[in-house]
Predict the structure.
Amino acid sequence: MSADPTQLAFEWDCRILSDNGCGFPAPGLHSFLFKPIFTVGGFEFNKVMLLALITTLLVVTFFSAAFGKAKVVPGKLQMVGEAGYDFVRRGIVYETLGKREGEKYVPLMVSLFFFIWIMNVWSVIPLAQFPVSSIIAFPAVLAAVVYITWLSLTFKKHGFVGGFKNLTGYDKSLGAVLPLVVVIEFFSNVLVRPFTHAVRLFANMFAGHLLLAMFTVASWYLLNSYMIPAAGVSFVMTVIMVLFELFVQAVQAYVFVLLACSYVQGALAEHH
Amino acid sequence: MIANLVQLAAEEKQNPLVPPGPELLVGTIAFAIVFFFFWKKLLPNINKVLEERREAIEGGIEKAEAAQVEAQSVLEQYKAQLAEARHEAARLRQEAQEQGAALIAEMRAEGQRQREEIVAAGHAQIEADRKAAASALRQDVGHLATELAGKLVGESLEDHARQSRVIDRFLDELEEKAEATR
């Protein structure tokens, strides 16, 4: 955490062809570091944490407003909330786990989806302009919650040996390759899976933020002399990337929850 | 340049895949709050309402079905009543016809009886008249015969004839003869 933290991704007077000799202030790892807003006994509270807490506040406030005084004949807000809720419940949980098995996991999946989605959306919100999920800690926490959930479910449902067999795809008919399969499956399911689950979300948001920052910074940096058309191209690319990011943000939230559901389904399945 | 190098050196120490502790804590708390609200409060709330709505819709359908069933039963009842009424009307008509026929027959019989009575009375009257006429005739004939015989004999035989009843006897004989030859 000792890289140079930046609040602004670029400096105002740094332009191409200007004679102050500065180069292109390319966004990099330093774009993901923030100076603490305040520090309490060594605990550095920064912008990302603030955004994470605002995310919580937003999600809880919105759904409290929508579902707090829910009516049989819904208002507009409740209708929007219900549409979102129904999308996760029917579109993801019931589709993968079925209505009977899945009902229990609806609260987890719904909160995962909306929490992740709003964390992602910060990427394009003016002033915030930073996806909370591009800091590995946040996806990691969520992936860990899912990991603990499906792992404990596996052992609860199949017992220790059965759970182990479930995790490793143990099947006697495999014969000689059985040890190999067991090792690979164990490695892939138990060790790699939570990592990929978290990193898939993190990396998408990380890359998205880099791209956005890149084009945004370049739009300003190129805005000089005969390079102005290039700045225009960069600006158009910024707009396109914002739209693309909006899409990716929703898709990544969807994929994260879909995978979580499929892991839970694997844990509940009779045979792996 | 030096600043850049420092930054590069610093970046080498930074690994974006190693989660920083404070963020882990904040992330956990942030998500826990969201999950807790959804789990304990908001989703039970909305599920209840969704269930109520489902029941309201299905209840409406059930009500409509019940109404339809009732309407059907009322219709059948009505039809049955109508059929019964028709049947009753037919029965009444039949009965009236029968009664009418009986009445006509009775009247006819009565008429017949009265006619016969009148006829019989007429016959009796005629017979009585005839008898009266016959008896009057017999008296007249007897009287005339006696008068005629008296004229022939030259003396009144009336008292004698009346006392002897000779003429009656004669006439009776005549009648008997007439009946015997008939």
Chain B has four helices and no strands. Chain B has one domain: 35-181.
